[in-house]
Amino acid sequence: MKNYLDCIPCFMQQALRAGRLATSDEQKLKEILEKTGDMVKNISMQATPAETGMMVYQIVREVSGINDPYKEIKQQHLKETKSIYPELEQIVENSDDKLLTAVKIAIAGNIIDLGVNRDFDIVSDVKSIMEQDFAISDYSAFKKQLEKTKEILYIGDNVGESVFDKILIKELKKPVKYAVRSIPIINDVTMEDAIASGLDEVAELIDSGCKSPGIILNHSTDEFLEIFKSADLVISKGQGNFEGLSDCNRQVFFLLKTKCPIISNHIGVEDGSIIFKEHKVHTTHLKNNKL
Asked: Model confidence over 165-202: pLDDT tens digits?
């Protein structure tokens, strides 16, 4: 997915929002906005929003001197999601299709996106999503792929939903490598966050090498790229990872809730939809043998 013109005001809003969490100094906030404005003047519309977002948060870090503006909020979200974890486990245990229910719970956690959405109530929103129908569901294709899978790559998104990811990983019943961001970026999950979530109990944690709010393959480590290429099954969580991987050259199953009209229109669904979408390999990419 490439940048759209409507992404530009969103980048400015993200810069101001993160800036205000990092500093109360009005001069620094003005500098953050000025530098972000200068940056977006020159962005390529062929770049992904994740690539541009990476530059936005780099500006916030450099001007404010704060590496993790969302740290306290992430800790609060982790506390909240852990508190309802036993209830979510019980929902899965009592369901007719445990795997599908775990998938829906994992998607429900995707509401916790501070890049585009600050107004949510974790408990009530999760319950609402559990009652919502999929706008797109490739669950049958997912189950078929899972049956013949030996190893899974699971690409994480935000800290709070990583607790929900743990529920799905347990239901997959296959070895899982869980990929995290290299540095704090918005409320995305890092190695430290994943351990705090307890994901190291159910998966092997790997550093993607990415410092962006979404996987960018040409910014990833060689280790991650090899795993991405060789894994039998890839699960990608959230909008940021969708932005970075929606044109990649391999099968990926995207799990997300659309919280941005640009992404909703790109996928062809209404805003607020829950998506379980199989991305298939493009034949042109196969010929070129590219990721």
From this structure: 999 999 999 999 999 999 999 999 999 999 999 999 99
Pairwise CA distance, residues 180 & 182, whole Å:
7
Q: What are the pLDDT digits (tens) for 152-164?
A: 999 999 998 999 9
* Spatial separation of the C-alpha atoms in residues 37 and 56, rounded to whole Å: 10
The whole-model pTM stands at: 0.92
Distance in angstroms (rounded) separating the CA atoms of residues 109 and 123: 10
Domain 71-288 CATH class label: alpha beta
Q: Which of 259, 233, 245, 254 is nearest to 208 (CA)?
A: 245
Q: How far is CA 257 from CA 88, 109, 157, in A?
A: 18, 9, 12
Q: Where are the domains of the chain?
A: 7-64, 71-288
Residues 6 or more apart from 19 whose CB is under 8 A from it? Answer: 28, 29, 32, 33, 60, 63, 64, 69
For domain 7-64, the CATH architecture is Orthogonal Bundle (1.10)
